Amino acid sequence: xxxxxxxxxxxxxLYHYQSFFSFSFFRFDGNFIISYxxxxxxxxxxxxxNLSKLLLFYFSIVLxxxxxxxxxxxxxxxxxxxxxxxxxxxxxGFISIVCAYFxxxxxxKKKLFSILLLIxxxxxxxxxxxxxxxxxxxxxxxxYYFWNKRQITLIxxxxxxxxxxxxxxxxxxxxxxLKIGSNNVLEYxxxxxxxxxxxxxxxxxxxxxxxxxxxxxxxxxxxxxxxxGSINDIPxxxxxxxxxxxxxxxEIKTFSSSHAHHSFFHILGEQGLFGLFIxxxxxxxxxxxxxxxxxxxxxxxLILTFWTxxxxxxxxxxxxxxxxxxxxxxxxxxxxxxxxxxxxxxxxNPTE
Length: 352
What we know:
It is built from 13 helices and four strands.
């Protein structure tokens, strides 16, 4: 994690060091700094806590509050339930973690009340209409099944097949992106494609703007990317430093939630193969750490959440967003701190 932080900070300094002095940067483009901060602190502690009981209490309170909000018709935008978040996708990302916990809680206890909590959490997730979260959770459950059957290779093949399918889609629409540009995509969707529904329009925005934007940056500078935060700075003005290394020289820097709607493409575009490789080393190390731990509801929950975030990140920039990653990183950090305590206790009292 510290290596990825260092690589990212270096990219920020070289691209636009003034970003560090803007709150909007930490809120949007650089939100990974806040999201992953717990993992730089909590693993150094030794904590004696019953994390599963703590989460059962906390997530139950979350369900109660959201049920009250739904009954009061609070923060609905059309049919989309935003819970206490600005965006329905942010709400979906957070609630998907809640669903993952109650799924593991049900598998552990197999009681009527457990399945009731699971049904309520899934219903709330459905109300958010966050398709990326629903898809991510569904694929995570499939992956969880493969993992329990010791078929990890099938999980990697599933992930790879989805990536290849998305790359094929980009190949189909990339020429259209180059022709119309990012600024004219809404007009093209409305007039040329005659699409008037929001859901279909969002799909074509990804195909004609968000994903190709990231690929465009990658093709201009495949090794190190075009600069941390550069995907939002449009129209692109690429300036070549050396062969295979360019940066976006657009003087107007935009800090916004207008990301690539795909975590892996986003990192690839801004930080290139080198940055994505460093991040994947860290991300895979989380899974390798968890699978080595003793089987428990917390271990299973964190693995299921890991896959939920991973697959959700194929349609959203979920792998850095605070609504999803702050809860995950806090829980993972507390889990590691508790494991530290248990190991220390075993060494101190080996006969117990």
